[in-house]
Amino acid sequence: MNELFEEQFRFNRDSVPNWEEGATHRKMLTGHLNDLAGENRGRLCVLGAGNCNDLNLKQLLHAFSEIHLVDIDGVALERAIQSQSLENEPSIFLHKSDLTGIGEQLAAWNEDDSNAGSNLTDIILKLSQPVNLNLPNPFDVVCSSCLLSQLIHLVVKAVGDTHPRFEETMIAIRSQHMQTMIDLMGEDGAGLLVSDFVSSASAPDLPHVPDHQFEQYLSQLLSSQNFFHGVHPGVLFSLLVGNSPFAQQVRNVEMLPPWRWNLGSRQYAVAAIQFYGLKKD
């Protein structure tokens, strides 16, 4: 049993009843995807789709000719289309996949193992390589739906954030995921990187801050280092502009205004960055 994946499966099961609470988040995310769709009704791929509580699939079917939902939790994907009465919809495709390719290795990693150092080196090396997802890309729009924080959480749980090579491993899994998004995009395709970066667990005032003060409040949280590992919105943005390797592959990078995601027992602050692939000559 992969304990790292089992934790995610439990999270998906526990969050099933939060459809109503997540209405604002769902409206925001669905709206941004509709905006990226344009008039051509292209193909959408959502990485980390899970229960799809954050996606209005029926609305998206008006904007896209195909919707491909990808997650490690195949049961959650089945549950998602059933809950939105779309189990017989031929334009929706479900893909159960480990989006890192190293989930089993990471779950089996043990710091006390005599080969722990070389095993971690092997994991980092594999993260530097493309993962074979067996998806029918290229897609017109690729969305990472609050998945990056979950992928980094795998490293936190398996390696620990005090381990000397934690940051190296965290950066490797983040870089792999961002490259995966770019690789899945078609020529002149669009990407939407959506990330939850802080919750009311460490920022209890988050649900109560007035909307007109929300961005200022988030800036204060970020300045005080109150955010999840590896998903500072400013850092993510900086990785897609300037002289970074990713910046050479994308254009028109834009940070969208943040919003709140109500998940029942907790609320999260969410940031989204949209970008476009480079047109080929």
List key phrases describing it:
7 strands; seven-stranded mixed beta sheet; 10 helices; 281 residues; alpha/beta; globular; Rossmann fold
Largest sheet report: 7 strands, mixed
CATH class: Alpha Beta
User: How would you describe the shape?
Assistant: globular
Helix content: 25-40%
Oligomer: single chain
Could you give the order of the helices and strands? HHEHEHEHHEHHEHHEE
Question: Which structural category do the helix and sheet elements fall into?
Answer: alpha/beta
Question: What do we call the CATH homologous superfamily?
Answer: Vaccinia Virus protein VP39
Strand content: 15-25%
Overall average residue pLDDT? 93
Quick take:
38% of the residues lie in helices and 22% in strands. The chain is α/β, with parallel strands linked by helices and 281 residues long. The chain has a seven-stranded mixed beta sheet with strand order 3-2-1-4-5-7-6.
Characterise the protein shown here:
The chain has 281 residues and is α/β, with parallel strands linked by helices. It has a single domain (3-275), classed as Rossmann fold (3-Layer(aba) Sandwich). 38% of the residues lie in helices and 22% in strands. Strands 3-2-1-4-5-7-6 form a seven-stranded mixed sheet. The longest helix is centred in the middle third of the chain and has 19 residues, at 166-184. The radius of gyration is 18 Å and the shape is globular.
